[in-house]
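re: ur question from earlier - yeah i can do the single chain one, its not a big deal. heres the input i used so u can compare w yours
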Amino acid sequence: MSTTSLKLPDNLKQRAVAAAQLQGVSTHAFMINAIEQAAIAAECRANFIAEAHAARKQMLEVDQGYDADEVHAYIQERIAGKKIAQPKARSWRG
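and the output i got, formated as C-alpha cells:
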C-alpha cells in the first residue's frame, strides 16, 4: 500500500474528523471510504456516458428508436403491475 499526503483546508479536515467520529471510524478510514465512493461514482458516470454514446451511435446506424411517451406509459403500467405489450421500435426519420 502506498502513502499519499493530502493537504486539506482546516475547515474540511474538521468536518472529516467530526463525520468520522459520528460513524465510529478513524479519520483515515473515513477519508479512504470517501475517496473510494468518489472513484466509484466517477467510474459509473463514465460508463453511463459511454453506454449513451454507443446507444446513440447504434440508433443512428439502424434508424430505429422508441417513442418516449410510449416508453413512459409502458413503465408506468409495469410499475402498476399491469401486463402491457412492449413499445415497438420504428423509424424515427420522417
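The chain has a mean pLDDT of 95. not sure if urs matches, ping me
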